[in-house]
Amino acid sequence: MEYLQDRLDEITASTRSLVQPERLAVSERAVADLYASGIETRILPVGAQAPGFALPDASGRLVRSTDLLALGPLVLDFFRGRWCPYCVTELETWQGLYSAVRKRGGLLVGISPQLPRQNEFLAIQHELSFPILSDAGCAVAGEFGLAYEVPPAGREYYRSILVNIPLINGDESWRLPLPATYVLSKDGVVLFAAAHADFRVRPEPAEVLEALA
To answer: ∠ CA(181), CA(205), CA(107), 5° rounding?
Structure first.
């Protein structure tokens, strides 16, 4: 069996062989600082009532969490953007498992701070059949305890690798979410919660699917 984390580790190994050490050092320090902030300890935990949301999908249509939960339990995948290879790999993995989510009666949505047009590019390019929602300014991510502001050194790092986050997200806030996966029951209670300050780490889908069983 191929695990998601194995695929992500391959990306990390490739990056370390291609990216200049001084640039890697900036990224490593950003991860360490974010972890040291304690943000992982402040995410919405299992057993909490999840906040409701109404967010536009890639076509601009408003999608409400109440409507989704009326149909079944919900898997939420918060991701940084289509510029993040780790996020794309995770979303592609979930696309391959979407039928397994549906067989358990669940629904799946991705949520990012990108503009709807950017999410549309992502969905088309990677053939994603589940909704990708646009969370402007990480407003909903903030309610889940996931949002943070990229510090100046991190902004310079992203500029150096030609990732224009203000352009992609449509605002100058430089807010991003921790990559996170949640499972909500039909009544909106958190059944599973996982988020990591290290963007290179994601939960295994098998663990998430267990929460839907």
So the answer is: 65
**Pair 59, 132: CB distance under 8 Å:** no
Return phi, psi of residue 62, to 5°: -75, 130
What are the structural domains, with CATH classification, of the chain? 4-212 (3.40.30.10)
Distance of alpha carbon 182 from alpha carbon 44, whole angstroms: 9
β-bridge mates for residue 181, sequence order: 77, 194
Classify strands 147-149 and 54-56 as parallel, antiparallel or unpaired: unpaired
Ordered alpha helix ranges (H), the chain: 4-18, 21-36, 65-69, 85-96, 98-103, 116-125, 139-143, 152-160, 165-169, 205-212
Distances (CA, A) of 172 to 25, 53, 74, 149, 166: 25, 22, 31, 10, 5
Locus of tokens 């996020």: 87
3-state secondary structure of 147: strand
pTM for the predicted model, two decimal places? 0.95
Q: Give the amino acid at 99.
A: S
Residues in CB range of 143: below 8 A, 6 or more apart:
44, 51, 53
In tens, the pLDDT along 99-131 reads 999 999 999 999 999 999 999 999 999 999 999
Measure the CA–CA gap between 116 and 14, rounded to whole angstroms.
30
